[in-house]
Amino acid sequence: MSGIKAKHQRLVLVLIALAALIAAALLAAWALRNQASYFYLPADLVARPPETGRAVRLGGMVQAGSLKTAPDGVTVHFVVGDGKARVPVTFTGIVPDLFKEGSGVVAEGRIAADGTFMADNLLAKHDEKYVPREMKDMTEAQAREAVKETS
Amino acid sequence: MIAELGLATLWLAAALALLQLIAGALALTARGTGFVGVVRPSAVVQGGLALLSFLALIMVFVQTDLSVKLVAANSPSAKPLMYKIAGAWANHEGSMLLWVTVMGLAGGFVALVEKRLPERTMLATLAGQAFVSLGFYAFLLFASNPFERLNPVPVEGQGLNPLLQDPGLAFHPPTLYLGYVGLSIAFSFAIGALVTREVGPAFARAMRPWVLGAWIFLTLGITAGSYWAYYELGWGGWWFWDPVENASLMPWLAATALLHSCSVLAARNALRAWTVMLGVVAFSMSMVGTFLVRSGILTSVHAFAVDPQRGTFILALLAIYIGGALTLFALRAGTVTEGERFAVTSRESARVANNVMLTGSLGIILLGTLYPLFTEAFGEKVSVGPPYFNPMTAIFVVPMLAVLAIGPLLRWRRDSFGRVRAILLIPAALLVICGVIAVVLAPGKVLPIIGLALAPALAVASILPLRGRDLRRVKLPVWGMVMAHFGVAVSLFGMASDSAFTTERLVAVRVGETTEVGPWQIRLARIEPVAGPNWTALEAVLEARYKGAAPVFTHPQSRTFWAPVQNTAESALLTRWNGQLYTVLGEQAAGDRWQLRLWWKPFVPMIWLGGVLIALGGLLALLGRVASDVKRLVARDKIAYRRERQGR
Fold it and tell me: Which of residues 103 through 122 in chain A touch B, CB cutoff 8 A?
């Protein structure tokens, strides 16, 4: 293979790789902006709600007296609050062991048209060593107040 | 006593690592040739001492010496022996000790058996290994001492997280670490070769078995971890894109790319600088993963107690090692002469495409894993999950799988598609047929359809390299490649089938009532109490009939552990040739009913079967490489011996 052609080949390879890299990075940035699931406290969720159907997470305290099981035995309704606002949540599934009224929870799901938060997944305080990050910040700042107000 | 002994051996091992680094560095200089003899022995002894220290930690865990802080925090006295042993690495300090032990052993093993590298590169490699080890020794001794004593001595330990009290714990972390940390060898080889500027086929041939070894363990570790999460968490999923899962996947992607480029360097003396770069990247990804998980900077089920000091320490190590290696690379890459050329249609090009796609998906996963950190700096909390990772990685993985089908059929250097077009018609036809079937069976599910269409075609294409060959004369590494690629197809089929065809049922039933999931009828026969060594449980006895056939019994439990007091759902699996029935017992609901969560997952075990096949393929390749190396060494020794005799 001749020298010029060889150099040409290397250049083309580098250019293709570079173009692919830039395209991938742009695509990834776009996907991240659109697909990342944002974390909301009840007050934020009420003040500026996300578009319905978009995957978000909601963190707060399960309000005392709000936890009710539907007749089917596997759907629960409860209210998550942060002392400023309250959001009704519906979840179908087996709730985590440490999920109870008055304790913190992070619900993954989406907001429905009627303002109910439809949770696909609930994260409760898992054990002493593992706490969802958002909840930890919350227990320090807002949670204690929230508990005080609601109980 | 044993704890002090363990700590002392750890200090000694660290001192030997320092000696190994200094002697290695001096031996590379013109006047330091006297130090050459010191380097290999200190690497071996260092590995042995690290192992002793680790054994000492296991001993204190087995004895449940509660005066050791780590034991008190992680081990109650009433616990089965297996978990006492495994408890040694089920915590931050113990797992970091396992990390340096693996690093020390790997370095010692290289020093003992690696004879192919030029001596100077070998010295630089061992010095590099010692340099990296030193940082982790310092981290252990100054920020995470596993042997720290506790005063006063508590009466009872705090216990091991019940989720970890599972046989998976005995197998998964050590395997993963052997792979994760074994990649440090590739890193040190790359450093060694950059220092002495000896990058070439001999270097690649020497590095390849080590990368293969680490890669096999990494593959097994990820496969085992995925299966463990699948049955232990009770969520029915096998991959959650959790930061720590990504942390194990990223080094695997880099190592897989490295394996493929390493072969190009060994066979064709091309992709020289790139291969060295991948050697650096692979272990860097292991370290980044450790940082992400251990600093507590990201939410993860694997994050142990959060400690900002540790995070800063690991970040500093990262900066030194990755920054240093990349700087060295930048300085020396220019002097790594360009390799052999190859045509666009050639096996080399296929390997380049493979490497681009693997590193591309690595980049995507790295971005997604780090993105929450970026946004949090701006006060916005986000989490990135499957909606990002699944389609974005597919963009790279799907073309890579297409290349996987074609690449091995191409010749080195220069080839034409015309030559392989006819043979590729078989998988291509299969692709179309399976694609149509998949569209009919699972309409609208884009990624699963692509997977279901690709997998059978890939399975056929992966064995095509064997066509027209005398199978008795096919070399082991070729068998290894075929088996690993076949494993990719098997695993892909399991993943696609699980996403496309899984049926789920969530119900609350009374004892005696029957429910259905997929082709199964399931009757809750009774609920009974059972007791284990350190837990009690309620067990559901489920009578499961596949399409009305004779009943089989399956027993999901809801366990209560005593220390620490915690409930866990213990799922039960019923495996048939065509899938798995996955059952979880929930809580008691109103009206004497019990919550049951049931899944029928067609062909889901193929995911892990494929993983095992991939690892087995690696093992075959490794055996083949080692056997031919041994043969070559023996032949060389014979020739040398004969010459010596003739000379006299």
Answer: none
What three-state secondary structure class fits A115?
A: coil
In a domain, B26, yes or no: yes
Do B565 and B437 share a structural domain? no
Task: Quote the domain boundaries for residue B473.
Answer: 422-502+604-648
Q: Which residues in chain B are contacts of A57 at CB distance < 8 A?
A: 383
Q: Are B584 and B597 in contact (CB under 8 A)?
A: yes
- Whether B497 and B534 map to the same domain: the answer is no
Alpha helices in B28-163, H assignment, sequence order: 36-62, 69-74, 81-87, 92-113, 119-138
Kindly determine whether residue A72 and residue B304, on different chains, have CB atoms separated by under 8 Å. no
List CB contacts (< 8 A) between A25 and chain B.
363, 367
Confirm or reject contact between B382 and chain A (CB < 8 A). yes
CB B389 within 8 Å of CB B372 = no
Tens of pLDDT, residues B220-253? 999 999 998 898 887 888 998 988 889 999 999 9
Say if the Cβ atoms of B506 and A132 lie within 8 Å.
no
Residues of chain A in contact with residue B367, where contact means CB-CB under 8 angstroms, are: 25, 28, 32
Each residue of A101-113: pLDDT tens digit? 888 888 999 999 8
From the list B29, B11, B182, B10, the residue with the least C-alpha distance to B94 is: B10
Interface test with A, best of B274, B277, B299, B301 (most A CBs within 10 A): B299
Angstroms from B568 CA to nearest CA on chain A:
7
Q: Are residues B565 and B640 in the same domain?
A: no
Q: Is A94 near chain B, with CB under 8 Å?
A: yes
Omega into B427 within 30° of 0, i.e. cis? no
Whether the Cβ atoms of residue B83 and residue B165 lie closer than 8 Å to each other: yes
In DSSP terms, which residues pair with A86 in a beta bridge? A81
| Chain B residues with beta carbon closer than 8 angstroms to that of A37 | 382-385, 387
Determine phi and psi for B66, rounding to 5 degrees. Answer: -70, -5
- Cα atoms found within 13 Å of the Cα of residue B184, Cβ hemisphere only: 31
B486 and B597 share one domain:
no
Instruction: Give the three-state DSSP class for A129.
Output: coil
Interface contact flag, B301 A126, Cβ < 8 Å: yes
φ, ψ (nearest 5 deg) of residue B261: -75, -30
- In the chain, the amino acid numbered B529 is P
- Substitution target from A26, A67, A69, A74 for chain B, most B beta carbons within 10 A: A74
Of A17, A27, A126, the CB nearest to B356: A17
Q: Contact at 8 Å (CB) between B132 and B284?
A: no
Q: How far is residue B404's CA from residue B401's CA, in Å, rounded to a whole number?
A: 5
**Any chain B CB within 8 A of the CB of A32?**
yes
The tally of domains found in chain B comes to 3
What residues in A contact B272, CB-CB < 8 Å? Answer: none
Single pTM value for the model: 0.91
Query: What is the distance between the alpha carbons of residues B457 and B426, in angstroms, rounded to a whole number?
Result: 8
Query: Could you tell me if B108 and B48 are in contact, meaning their C-beta atoms sit under 8 angstroms apart?
Result: yes
Return the bridge partners of A75, or none. A92
CA B484 – CA B247 distance, rounded (Å): 22
Average pLDDT over chain B, rounded to an integer: 90
Interface contact flag, B392 A20, Cβ < 8 Å:
no
Residue pairs between chains A and B whose CB atoms are closer than 8 Å: 108
Domain annotation covers residue B458: yes
**Judgement on whether residues B519 and B637 belong to the same structural domain of the protein:** no
Extract the tokens encoding B345.
């249609």
Can you read off the two tokens belonging to residue A65?
């007296």
CA distance B421 to A122: 52
Q: B349 Cβ partners below 8 Å, 6+ apart?
A: B342, B343, B410
Q: What is the DSSP string of B537-552?
A: EEEEEEEEEETT-S-E
Q: Which residue has the tokens 């290894």?
A: B480
Tens digit of each residue's pLDDT (9 = 90 or more) over B401-415: 999 999 999 998 888
Residues of chain B short of pLDDT 50, as ranges, are 300-305
